[in-house]
Amino acid sequence: MGPGARSRLRDLGKDPVIILPYLGYGTARHLVVCGRVLEDEGFLPARDTDTRWRNLVQFFKRLESDEVPGARLRASHGSVVKEALTDAEGYFRIELAPAALQRGSWQEVGLELLGTPVRAAARVLVPSRRAKFGVISDIDDTVVFSNVANKLKMLLTVALSNARTRKPFAGVAAFYRALHAGVNPVFYVSKSPWNLYAPLLEYLEVQGLPLGPLILRDFGWKMAKAHKADAIAEILSTYPKLKFILIGDSGEQDPEIYSEIARRFPGRIRAIYIRSVNRRRIAAPAGQLVLAPDAETAAAHAAAEGLIQASELRAVRSEKDSESSLSKAPASSGGLK
Predict the structure, then answer these.
(1) In 3D, which of 192, 219, 198, 236 has the Cα closest to residue 25?
(2) How far apart are CA 98 and CA 319, in angstroms?
(3) How far apart are CA 122 and CA 188, in angstroms?
């Protein structure tokens, strides 16, 4: 542990720190636990009544999070124990070879910050043997309106809202639950920075979307394409016997990225759903691409292909109709849908 970390950890009552574990993924032979050690800013869960100003303050506080470099952590899963140090940005990555898996798809790994009473529990997804396929989805302008094509508007959209006031596109949550079906793993790959991990996880929980690993990136606007392609390739390589559904939007480069993935991993992509947000022409990739204006269109195709049950299509349509009627009311959070 470096001197800077020791000075911060000496007085936990005055300047407490926390372990923020990320939802990870792995296999029966290999669990990967990632996260950060940060100074505790005392963030509270989002509320419907939070003002845009409060949301803005919270947003910038997260971007300016104070990391703890050089902190030593210990991870344990059953009888397997391993230690690691955080890097200069407070990140840690610990790989474990489990002696035996616990019951259920989510494996719990205990974390402790050595020399302190700080503890946390990380959750690592090991897909069920009953999984028929996996789902890899973008978030911005795919799950929720983000205005990703305009960086300034995107920043304001995210900064002035929160996990409760930003609603998913109508029917999306029901469609994702249908694809998940309790056993099919769902992964989210986003261009958002790791600083926004906690509110994004809260968003999934509050809006009823299936929980799954969130693969974000270091803060900055560059290398977004490489980040997404590399993250998807790593997931597919981790589960070589599992086929996948890719979901994105036409606002930026999802069709091109998914096309390249389909070429690199022939026979691995069951379907590609692209939410159509503009009129640009898209060359069909080496896979089954569906341009869908809404979740119901994608769900209808999925039902016809046997990817979801017909009864789930009715649930998607019902949720879409219900949410669409609510969205006709004037928006109160910066024009969000």
Answers:
(1) 236
(2) 41
(3) 17
The mean predicted confidence, pLDDT, of the chain is 81
Instruction: Give the 3-state secondary structure of residue 48.
Output: coil
pLDDT classification of 281: cutoffs 50, 70, 90 = low
The first and second tokens of residue 253, run together, are 């480069």
**Residue 3 CB coordination number (10 Å):** 8
4: CB partners within 8 A, 6+ apart: 68, 69, 70
**Nearest CA among 275, 294, 336 for reference residue 174:** 294
296 is written with which tokens?
């119901």
C-beta separation of 62 from 201 below 8 A: no
Q: Is 19 helix (H, G, I), strand (E, B) or coil?
A: strand
Please state, for a pLDDT cut of 70, what percent of the chain lies above it: 72
How far apart are the C-alpha atoms of 231 and 252, rounded to whole Å? 17
- Helix segments in 133-223, DSSP class H: 151-159, 172-180, 197-206
As a whole number of angstroms, the distance between CA 126 and CA 116 comes to 30
Tokens for 64, please give them: 């300016």
- Classified as helix, coil or strand, 192 is strand
- Provide the residue type at 147 as one letter: N
Compute and round to an integer the Cα radius of gyration of the chain.
Answer: 20
**Which of 91, 96, 84 is closest to 20 using CA atoms?**
91
Q: DSSP character for 333?
A: S
| All domains in the chain, ordered by first residue | 3-125 (2.60.40), 134-327 (3.40.50.1000)
d(CA 125, CA 24): 6
How does strand 80-85 pair with strand 72-77?
antiparallel
pLDDT at 239 > cutoff 80: yes
Contacts of 44 (CB under 8 A, 6+ apart): none
Percentage of the residues of the chain whose pLDDT score is greater than 90: 52
**Global pTM exceeds 0.90:** no
Distance (Å, whole) CA 230 – CA 43: 31
